[in-house]
Amino acid sequence: GDSVTQKEGLVTLTEGLPVMLNCTYQTIYSNAFLFWYVHYLNESPRLLLKSSTDNKRTEHQGFHATLHKSSSSFHLQKSSAQLSDSALYYCALRRINSGGSNAKLTFGKGTKLSVKS
Amino acid sequence: DPKIIQKPKYLVAVTGSEKILICEQYLGHNAMYWYRQSAKKPLEFMFSYSYQKLMDNQTASSRFQPQSSKKNHLDLQITALKPDDSATYFCASSPQGTEVFFGKGTRLTVV
Q: Is B96 in the A-facing interface, judged by CB distances under 8 Å?
């Protein structure tokens, strides 16, 4: 089956430093959507970024990621961490089924980002 | 305003009892889901419904039964509760397409 790997369970950074959260995935399907969800405590997980296009950078709210199918990676980056970025970040994969039906999301274990002043 | 409402927010249950987790979405989506997050584990897909029909079931135990009485409702009945069922249960929905929207979750503790 599909799988998503986020090797870092916790990333601690000083405010202003760059952020990079790693995500690699495995799927037998050639077409898949990759997502980054951000989950703040006591809130709903919400979509941060998504992509299905190889080698195309996608950006939102200062974060960016590029899907690289050759290396099965979708790393999340930001040039300068802010205190408000402290949250749990999930990488997820969803197959693109023919007919647009709604396949399940497969999540990684999540990376807790802690930004300190 | 939250568009996916889950009730209750917190729930404590006794081992062996039965509980129903409520989910209503007001996004007009046809697909609804349940996910579970146990301690130190990733968000785990449980069920998907489309137009009130079960599409996918990744839950091994029949103790978990989704119930869709209305188009925008997908409740989760859990019977014979066990301590291992303790988790946060997230309801989600999506339009036909890619993005999945989540509720805030129901945190279930089984004692």
A: yes
B58 C-beta neighbours (distance < 10 Å), count: 15
Calpha distance B48→B25 (Å, rounded): 14
Q: Which residues of A touch B104 (CB under 8 A)?
A: 42-44
Contacts of A46 in chain B (CB under 8 A): 101-102
Distance from C-alpha of A71 to C-alpha of B12, rounded to nearest angstrom: 44
- A55 with A43: CB under 8 angstroms? no
The span from the CA of A101 to the CA of B33, in Å, is 13
Name which of B91, B94, B56, B88 is nearest B73 in CA terms: B91
Low-confidence ranges of chain B (pLDDT < 50): none
Nearest CA in chain B to A52: B98
Encoded amino acid at A103, one letter: A
Q: Is the pLDDT of residue A100 over 70?
A: no
